[in-house]
């Protein structure tokens, strides 16, 4: 009996406890929503506020007699807003961008031509500027009575008021943005589609002020604001409740911070605070790593890829670079999907026993796609670690070049992206930490192959959470895409020279120089190139040079002039006669001889040649060992820009032709001068003797150091001067310019630096590493020589 009573008592006690808990929860919920403002909460109450309000848009009514001022606003007449946003349009998002008159032709144009294209079809963008602003390039709203002073409190609040008054029934969402933010429209749409716009929403990166500002922004405990830089998003319900009170908010500003006052206005009239969610710091991204912003070094960071907005991008041209980079990522994704589909089609065709039409694009990934038929066909691998070890370079071990570093970063980034594709469902993520070592080769038919040993960080988010470091081997293959053929605009025929290419002002900052018209290009084509050639002796080599120059320039009537700076030696009279013959045939004004006294000095010779030319003349410094085609003339003209850019072509240099003929048993010995194969020669990446520039730019950097005697060093000195100046250096390989082989004699009178350069040039011109290795392998006396032996 006692036991039964005890059990009943316990059941009654348990039932009372359950009832009390339920009643307490209901009471707490009622008190929270009825008695306390939601703006002081950090939970989801801050997003979905005031359940007593009827949230259906069509049933929501705003009192007509709210206290407010008439706010003067003038629309920009140059851009027809009624055509840009039609009165009957029902869109998803309207973005208002705060800008200023001085940025309408730069930042505003860059934004309108880049990231706005990522939200086409669901968003519209308006630019708000001070009174009297106008533009025919972007849709600008001129706010009367507003100037471009900073901070733009009045401009920001009046912009919100304008969007409410004009378009509150046209859009679900509204966004306030700066002109130096980059918005990924597609990612923003995906975010907003998942949120209810029929309740007050105030979304962005939450802030409470800097450390030194705490207590000075008049924010109560747990109050915040959305930081203006990365952008702020409002639901249409927020604007309906807040915008009628903008005049009141303007009359009660407590700080000079625009975003703080916008947040205060929202909170006072809707009860909503900025979203506290930590994830918003990643979505509305503020760049704290780079002092000057613009994402020059952090663009490929993982955090940047996941962001919805990027702030700040102060330089307009960087907006285009970011846009192009994101587009390239999108293209890579599409190419990968296309490649996967082609492989799937080819696989089905093989299963059905039918012939596939996908070509090499449909081949499955494999490191054995190419089967060598001889020893020379074998594709060699380069070893990668902190440096690269490769037999293809004269310096077998050297630092990883920037292009290769970029390629590795892209490959590894794509791999990690593929691995983490279903990370959320699997409850884990894998992050790249470091590259231990790897191998790389390039198959000229199929693409680049990689074997990488990489260190990863494995993070498990569900169950027993764990973070561990793991090593994995990755076998990767980057397929070459299909060949696309485009027409060269310079060979397709010129439009009328009077036609102008219209570019925004900011495009003038892109390359060196600011010439953008077709008339400028047409004038460049007719520009005279002054060839400056130092010469001492070398009669037969000079005759070969003149034969080449005659075919390319003299017979064709090309706009060129040759200045030969001649040093006296035993062949001087014969050389003068040779030049005289060409002068009689083609006219003395086409070829000029300048006599130089003393021992040969290339710096002195080039300086003498430059002195004969005018300030605006285009100079081209050349050596007598160079052979070339007419194609170089166009490149010299277009790649050299007065006051902005000099051109240093990377020339192909021949190996010892007699050695190659003996090695390959070529009889009679003849090797095409424009044979650019690996065994025929090498690209002179560190050669700076061949260059084109304007005389005014040469004098701007101080000209040649004529105290340098003999061979070498004068070119490096001039190159260094340009690299330290405001004039840009442009370098590129030129397949139509070849340095023909000649034996090198290093004069014992050269100083140590010149002697080192001379010996280096002599040894580099002997033969390729591949040929030398073959010679050693075929020569037992060398191959079997004991270490330290000099025999």
Can you walk through the features of this model?
By secondary structure, the protein is of the alpha/beta class. Helices cover 34% and strands 19% of the residues. The chain contains 24 helices and 27 strands. A hairpin with a 7-residue loop joins β14 (387-389) and β15. The longest helix is centred in the middle third of the chain and has 37 residues, at 316-352. Mean pLDDT is 83; it is low at 1-5, 29-73 and 494-511.
| Spatial separation of the terminal alpha carbons | 115 Å
Total helical elements: 24
Rg over alpha carbons? 36 Å
Main β-sheet description: 7 strands, mixed
The residue fraction in helices comes out at: 25-40%
How do the strands of the widest beta sheet line up side by side? 1-4-3-2-5-10-7
Multimerization state: single chain
Which tags fit this structure?
19% strand; alpha/beta; seven-stranded mixed β-sheet; disordered N terminus; 34% helix; 27 strands; 791 residues; globular
Secondary-structure blueprint:
Elements (H helix, E strand, L loop, with lengths): L1 H34 L38 E2 L5 H4 L8 E6 L8 H7 L9 E7 L10 E3 L10 H15 L5 E6 L2 E3 L1 H9 L8 E2 L2 E2 L17 E2 L5 E4 H7 L3 H5 L7 H13 L9 H4 E3 L15 H5 L2 E3 L4 H37 L29 E3 L2 E3 L7 E3 L2 H18 L3 H4 L1 E16 L3 E14 L5 E14 L38 H8 L3 E7 L3 H16 L5 E8 L4 H15 L4 E6 L5 H10 L6 E4 L4 E3 L2 H9 L5 E10 L2 H8 L16 E3 L7 E4 H6 L13 H10 L4 E12 L12 H13 L4 H10 L1 H4 L8
Parallel strand pairs: 2-3, 2-5, 3-4, 11-12, 19-20, 19-22, 20-21, 24-27
Antiparallel strand pairs: 1-4, 5-10, 6-12, 7-10, 8-9, 13-14, 13-16, 14-15, 16-17, 17-18, 22-26, 23-27, 24-25
Helix pairs in contact: 3-11, 4-8, 6-8, 15-16
